[in-house]
Every structure is written in C-alpha cells, then in structure tokens.
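Quick start: read one record
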Amino acid sequence: MRPCSRSTGPPLHVQLLFNIMVLAVLGILGRYRIQSSFPCRPVTIVAPLLSVMALLSGHLAWRYLCEIITRTLDIDKAMTKDFRTRLLILVVSIFDALHPWRLGTTSLWGSFILSAGAIAIVLSPVFPITIIERSPVLEGFRVEYSKISHIYKPGSTVELKVGDKVKVGAVIANLNGWICSWSTLGDGGWLSGRECEGYYQVSSWQTIDILSVKVQSRCKTREVHGALHIKVIRNSY
C-alpha cells in the first residue's frame, strides 16, 4: 500500500489499538513533566487530555505533510535506495497505514479543537476540581538576632529594643513550598523578605506591634494564620 493513498488501510480495530498504545506511552512519558508544570491540577485528568491533543496534532501534521514527505523519500524507487532509506520508508509506510484516513479532515480538526477547549477549561481558574492538599501546620516563629535564634509559639510576645533588626521566619511542620504573606499592625516594622522568612526592624515611634503571617498551600486551597506580638523596650536614660 502506497502512503497517502487514502485507501482503507488495516482493520479499524488495529488502528484503534495503535492509537491507544501511543496515548498510553505519551501519558506515561509526560506524567512527571505535566505534574511539575501544572501542580494544581489532577494529573489523571490533564495527562490524558494533553496526550490526546498531542496525538491529534501529529495526525493533522501528517494529513498535510504526507505528500511532501513521500515525494522526498521517492517511494516508487525505494528498492534502489540504501538500507537506511528503505528502513525509513518502511516506518513511514507503517505510520501512514495506521493514520485514520477514514476520519475526514474536518472531523479531525473538530476533535483537535474539542480537546484544546477541554484542556483550556481544565487549566482555567474556574475548573472546580483541584488536587487534595495537606493543611500547613504553623508551629511557631524563629526569631534570629546576633546569630542567636529562638523559637516562639504563635501568639507569644517577644521583647525588642528600638532599632533592633531581627530575622523572622515561620516554622512550618510539614513539607515545603508554602506561600507566606506577612503584615504588621502599623505601617513600619516589616522589611523586605522572601518566601516564609524576612526581616523586621523596630521603629523609634513604636510601643507595641503585631507581626502576622498567612501561610497558604502551593495551590492556595489550605491556609493557616499566626501572629507574633512585639513589645518595644525603650532605652532608659
């Protein structure tokens, strides 16, 4: 059978079996990459949809490039070519035989658009299904000053002097990858920080302050709040 002949090809169940095998391989190979690229979506839903879209993309590409490829390989003179070329022609012929020529180009494009739409819905913020995350457990706050650190439980009070600059970090029990948002009672105090730690400096006008943190899971489906009370000690003259 000559490629791009649009003949009946092998039986339909053979074509279906081949495409299912390709989908399975694509899903297995891309599972971990998909999981790292879309951590907040169930990989059991995203992986099959992306595999279907990738397979349909390949079929669409073959539908339009088949004639060009076969002309370049010169199928009619295959026997006069070297072994490597004949092997390549054999592979092309097999893939062409398993291409769904029975499915019209319009139907192929329609399937591709439907799969792309399904992926867009699954990856959109309005999609109701997300992964199940563990709730963060805030054990306390690590306060470091002059290379000495202490652990304070949420709600505890720490005494600082005017002008003190300390490193503060949220102590979270389980896993990493949490998102922390810090805030203070007044306008001053909290300096720039990254992730779940940063720097706090006591302003001269402060007497008390409350340093609060909101810890969210990676996909923001779970969160916990905690606060550290700060009492400012003024120098006595």
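Residues 43-73 form the longest helix (31 residues).
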